[in-house]
Design brief:
alpha/beta, Rossmann fold, 11-stranded mixed β-sheet, 3-stranded mixed β-sheet, 19 helices, about 15% strand, globular, disordered N terminus, hydrolase
Length: about 500
């Protein structure tokens, strides 16, 4: 179990998970993915992890089928209507639910799949995009278990989510990078290996989406996600901002981005593991002293990755795993996504219903995906991104802050993998013009229905929020608080001290 660390780390991102155990060929034709032998170190832990979430995708990557590659339109979208139990408003018919494929222009044969849900409140609400981490896990995991319009009942029926983020936004859930979820390619060259490839694909998609939906072009736009999306999100935000400045087609009205329990600056966040583990009594003081001795070699390995790339990044991935491995070796079967819970043997969560539901022929027909199977998490995508893992993506954020782009970093307090302490440390260490004032800002309570739901600190466009009674997946553990967080933040009201002073901090 100990050896599963970093692989587990971002794999859950909303539910970090991936498929590493399929014996089936990666692509149905002659193409095969060829990774270096070092990348295979992820396979065994990946298998253990996805089984721990009760996910069993048939394929290691979504290769799709040739029959869908004949279309030439950039976006092929259809409106669909799932039978949902209960009605959230005046008329379910008023809510537009869409699913579509986008033909990625800088690829051989890649198609990006997405869901788009119009707001249950107003079409003038902001447009929000959600990215699940992994790397290689589908955003449908978040859609059905966290902040989508509906949840899956045990009998595979759908029930409205009273706290879905579509109650405050027009929301996109995108399967990315290529090979994840329903997104597919029949050419191995389309599998992305770094954030340049990921962010360019997302930016290309976004411009085409707004071209096809011009009524939303002037709406505020926000990027959100969790876990390994701590890499995706800032890289994507930088790409959008650069595109706007260079006038690359449609202007995207980017207002901000939010990262939940993310991995953004590994060098700082890995150093926080022993401290968080000690503070939460997962390890003893003597354990702490011993494990802390492993940290310097991890830090140096990450620095070498930043300088040399290549094998140095794979080495840092292995070396830094040792820190977490030692902690988990002592903690035993504790659920590293929510340390209040224990895993029963290998099973920590059960997300299997989403695979069953999305592979139903009736559902595939409704969504227009044909015979394509749903790959909940792709081990091939995960392996392809392995040298991206220890990269620092905090570096692009200061310039965005200086230009007034709002940044929200939030974290459930009981998550070990991407814990709030490590996230707080990198946010405070980030060099920008408001760094000192942010550091000196008062911590105030985040209030939901008159009760304290978290603690936050804010200055200018930067906000950090520690969410109480939540693990790695804040929208799943605290749905009402997460929706209010989103609403207040987009409205510029999250750090209102007037509201905060009405209650006593927890």
């Amino acid at each position: 179990m100990a050896s599963t660390f970093c692989q587990k780390l971002l794999l859950l991102s909303l539910f970090l998970l991936f498929s590493a155990f399929s014996a089936k060929a990666v692509f149905p034709r002659k193409n095969q993915l060829h990774f270096s032998p070092t990348s295979s170190l992820a396979k065994i832990p990946a298998e253990k992890l996805i089984r721990g979430l009760n996910l069993f995708p048939k394929d290691v990557v979504n290769a799709g089928t040739d029959d869908l590659t004949v279309e030439t339109s950039k976006i092929v979208e259809k409106q669909f209507r799932f039978p949902v139990l209960g009605a959230p408003g005046p008329s379910v018919k008023e809510f537009g639910h869409h699913a579509g494929y986008y033909k990625l222009p800088h690829s051989k044969a890649a198609r990006m799949f997405y869901f788009f849900f119009e707001s249950r409140n107003s079409k003038k609400d902001p447009v929000v995009i959600w990215l699940t981490g992994g790397p290689g896990c589908s955003s449908e995991l978040a859609l059905f278990y966290e902040n989508g319009p509906f949840h899956l009942a045990k009998n595979l029926s759908l029930i409205w989510n009273d706290y879905g983020w579509d109650k405050a936004s027009n929301i996109l859930f995108v399967d990315q990078p290529t090979g994840t979820g329903f997104s597919y390619t029949s050419d191995e060259n389309d599998i992305r290996h770094d954030e340049n490839g990921v962010s360019n694909d997302l930016y290309d998609f976004l411009k085409e989406f707004f071209k096809q939906h011009p009524q939303y072009v002037k709406n505020d736009f926000y990027i959100t996600g969790e876990s390994y999306a701590g890499h995706y999100i800032p890289a994507f935000a930088v790409r959008v901002h650069q595109g706007n400045k260079a006038k690359e087609g449609i202007h995207v009205n980017l207002k901000g981005f939010a990262i939940g329990n993310g991995l953004t600056n590994p060098e700082i966040q890995y150093q926080a593991y022993p401290d968080y583990a000690l503070n939460t009594s997962l390890i003893t003081q003597s354990d702490y002293v011993s494990i802390k001795k492993l940290v310097p070699s991890c830090v140096q390995a990450i620095k070498r990755c930043g300088t040399n790339s290549g094998d140095a990044c794979v080495d840092s991935y292995q070396i830094c795993n040792n820190v977490f491995n030692q902690i988990m070796g002592i903690a035993g079967n504790v659920n590293y996504y929510d340390i209040r819970k224990q895993c029963e043997v290998d099973l920590c969560y059960d997300f299997s219903d989403v695979e069953t539901f999305l592979n139903l022929k009736s559902v595939r027909d409704a969504l227009g995906v044909g015979d394509i199977d749903f790959v909940s998490c792709s081990s091939a995508v995960y392996e392809a991104m392995i040298m991206d893992w220890m990269r620092n993506f905090e570096v692009g954020i200061p310039a965005l802050l200086e230009d007034g782009i709002k940044v929200l970093i939030y974290a459930g307090e009981y998550d070990l993998i991407c814990n709030w302490l490590g996230n707080s440390k990198w946010v405070h260490a980030m060099t920008w013009s408001g760094q000192k004032k942010f550091g000196a800002a008062h911590i105030v309570p985040f209030v939901v229905d008159g009760a304290v739901a978290g603690k936050l600190k804010s200055h200018g466009p930067l906000t950090f929020l520690k969410v109480h009674d939540a693990g790695h997946m804040v929208p799943m553990d605290q749905p009402k608080a997460s929706l209010q967080m989103l609403q207040n933040w987009m409205q510029g009201k999250l750090a209102s001290s007037e509201i905060a002073e009405r209650v006593t901090p927890k």
